[in-house]
Each structure stands twice: as structure tokens, then as C-alpha cells.
Amino acid sequence: MERIAKIIGEYASFFDHYGNYVLIPVFVLILIVDWKVSKANVSSGRKKIIRPVLSILAIALGILIYLTNFSFKPIVRSLSKVNEAIGTDMVHFEYLNVATNKIETLETYKGKMVLLNFWGTYCPPCIKEFPDLKALETRYSEDLVVIAISDEDPAKIKQFVSNVSSPSIIGSQKQHSWINPEKFLPLTVIIDKGKVANRFWGRKSYEEFVEIIEQVKKGKE
What we know:
This protein has 221 residues and is an alpha/beta fold. The chain is built from 8 helices and 7 strands, in the order αααααβββαβαβββα. It has 2 domains: 2-75; 86-220, Glutaredoxin (3-Layer(aba) Sandwich), CATH 3.40.30.
């Protein structure tokens, strides 16, 4: 299931725009082939090999079709939306800094790279990412700003982060109207000098974060 989730996240634009037009016909085709094999005059040994393979493919496609149309549909739409925004100017984005209790915007950091991390106190993978995000702040102190955004109550967020190692900037935004990740977290968007540069869904290791950031930096050269 985790592997399927990663595939959906990686190819969100495809699933959002073309998924049903490709997956459903292939699914139906597999069922037809399986039915024909069951009726064909072939040895039982060959059927015992072919039909289980077709069944596995049908089950995998069925799960994929279900997830992209129901369970994972919101994140597919969100990631597809960000994919289409890559290379374009970031929309106006503001949040409440829970430490200062002031409204801030990304325009403040337009000259830098911003790692915008959507998280929640109820999301264990998000919390496990925090030390790595903190380490990134130290490593790229001159080039990178990390902003961790939750849609929860500011007081709750502030109390929670006081007991964990977290990025320096923790924000509250009640509605992520631009991306709408709902509860599919963590979700990270990289913004470089005001433009959307990359996005990824799910927890990343420190090494993976570094690789992504270096790729964005290399793209500027």
C-alpha cells in the first residue's frame, strides 16, 4: 500500500487528468483476457500460471482506480495543481506565526529558497521530520527558510512545538486554499525566489531533503 501511495503521489498529474481513461480500459481488458483464458483450450498448467498473474494485475489496478477516485482523490488533485504551478510565481500566501502572533507572507523571503512544510500534531511522520528540517536550517542558514504550517488552533500548535525539536518558523493557516492537502501529510513545497520549484508528499529523510535542495540550487546555475 505504501508503494502504491508513493506512485500516486509521484504521478498525481497523470492520475488526475488521464487516470480513468487509461486504467479502467486496461482493467476491463485484463478481465476479458482472464475470461478468455479460462475458456480457452489450453493446459491446466498454463492456466495455473497465467490466471493468477492476471488476477494480481486486476487487483492492483482495481486498488489504484479506487484510491485515485476516492481515498486519495483530494491529494491527487492538490499535487496535480502544484505540478502545474511548478516554474510559475507562487500565489500570495500568508500565515500566522505562532511565536510572534503576527501575520506573515512569503513575500518576505522572496529572495531566498523557502521549504514550506504542511504538517499536523496528529501526524507522526510529520513530527519525525522536524529534526531533519531543523538540521536543514542550520546547514543552509544563508539560503533556506523553513516554514512549517498546520491548520490547527495556534495555541495548540504553540504548546505542542514547545515540547519538540521543530523548525524556527511555525505557522497556522486555517484553510490551505491554494493546495488543500487535507489530512494527507506531510506535504512539502519548495519555493525558490518566489517561484514554485518542487513538491513532494510523505516523509523524507535528511539525505533526501539535501538531495532535493541541491537539485533546486543546481537548476539555478
